[in-house]
Write a structure and sequence with these properties.
binds pyridoxal-5'-phosphate, about 40% helix, globular, Aspartate Aminotransferase, domain 2
């Protein structure tokens, strides 16, 4: 199957092989080495010297962790949303009891840095800005560099950044941008099965954590750090998924960090070029189009369900639909993780073939 949804992605054979490694003790020297090496390799893609943890959960767990480790109930935060995952971050923050002001942009658009800055300025005493870097539901990437710069002209909040579907494939230099809590999940850019979240925690986030009163246990960074310093995790980690991530990171590093970012930039341009050349109409602000997933409109007169249904049935190609208010209107082709131009050629040929058949 040519699986081109925005995670989970297909796995390279080296990663599949790593998944079959015999189990090891998660309280032994082999695990210590596995965890240390995996974290060190992941840090090169995060471009950070901050602490970086591997949690056994999906990315959403780190939305909760980012909030509960830095904030107290009632703290004011500004949540910027440009789609469904930004909305999810808002919902998690509300559930944790923080006082959320939502700044929403229309689906298909990126956040306007100046509007974010003025919303921050108006919100006196705002402790944190929560933002999605790559909004997978609309295939749009926010300009986090411009946003942090514009906001910092008025103050110095924490930046809690969802890079679930970009980190690893897209350049997000955590230290250079001084981002405080930054998270991603294994099934996206990392050519690894679901089951792990990766999160980096800045010194400023640790400072905030000292007075943060939100309740936490499983996702407590300080609790995690104590164990990690001894080469363990507090609870049983997803050992096989870490074997897989370790193998995937070796492949990614063999290509090179900058080269990896360039590869996905090229894959994105290639995908959008192929879609346009085949007569598909791209969705959203193309100037802010994502490097890991592309969206285009479902061809006129064809139902999304029939379109994607026949692609799977006839061509064995699986792409994603739209979500929320654009459900049924767009489809999304992912080019993250394990992907080649040939895979994209197959997808676009299947889309064109099905369009012809159903028109
Ligand atoms: C941008 C973004 N944030 C958060 C999530 C949630 O991640 P998970 O499904 O790993 O919980 C996703 C998943 O697609 C995502 O794309």
């Amino acid at each position: 199957m040519n699986l081109r949804i925005p995670g989970p992605t297909p796995l390279p054979s080296e990663v599949i092989k790593a998944l079959t490694n015999p189990m090891i003790s998660h309280r032994g020297t082999e695990y210590d080495a596995l965890q240390r090496e995996t974290v060190a390799m992941a840090k090169t893609f995060f471009q950070t010297t901050n602490d970086l943890f591997l949690f056994t959960c999906s990315g959403t767990g780190m939305m909760e962790a980012a909030i509960v480790n830095t904030l107290s109930p009632g703290d004011k935060v500004l949540a910027v949303t440009i789609g469904l995952f930004g909305d999810r971050f808002v919902n998690v923050a509300k559930a944790m009891g923080v006082d959320v002001t939502v700044l929403k942009f229309p689906m298909g658009k990126a956040a306007d840095p100046e509007k974010v800055a003025s919303a921050y300025k108006e919100l006196k005493g705002c402790k944190a800005v929560m933002i999605t870097h790559n909004e997978t539901s609309t295939a749009i990437t926010n300009d986090v560099r411009a946003i942090t710069k514009a906001v910092r002209a008025h103050g110095n909040p924490l930046f809690l950044v969802d890079t679930v579907s970009s980190m690893g494939n897209v350049n997000v230099p955590v230290d250079e941008l001084a981002l405080d809590v930054v998270f991603t999940s294994s099934q996206k850019a990392w050519m690894t099965p679901p089951g792990l979240a990766l999160v980096s925690v800045s010194k400023k986030a640790w400072e905030a954590g000292k007075t943060a009163k939100c309740r936490r246990y499983y996702f407590d960074f300080a609790h995690m750090k104590k164990y990690v310093e001894h080469g363990e995790t507090p609870e049983t980690p997803a050992v096989s998924t870490i074997f897989a991530l370790h193998a995937a990171l070796k492949l990614m590093l063999a290509r090179g960090v900058k080269e990896t970012f360039a590869y996905y930039r090229q894959m994105a341009a290639y995908t959008r070029g192929a879609l346009v050349d085949s007569g598909f109409v791209l969705f959203g602000d193309i100037a802010r189009a994502s490097n890991t997933v592309s969206a285009c409109f479902v061809p006129k007169g064809i139902a999304d369900k029939d379109f994607r249904g026949l692609m799977k049935k006839k061509y064995n190609v699986v792409i994603a639909g739209g979500k929320g208010e654009i459900e049924g209107k767009i489809v999304r082709v992912a080019h993250m993780g394990w992907v080649t131009k040939k895979d994209i050629d197959e997808v676009v040929a299947a889309m064109a073939g099905v369009r012809k058949e159903l028109s």
